[in-house]
Amino acid sequence: MNSLSLRCALPALLACAILGGCSGEVEAWPPAVRTQQERHMIESAQRAVDRYDGWSKTLFVVEHHADQWWVQAWRVVNPQAQGRGQCVPWGVRNVILNEQGDMLEYRNHL
Question: What stretch of H or E contains 46?
Answer without folding.
Answer: helix 36-52
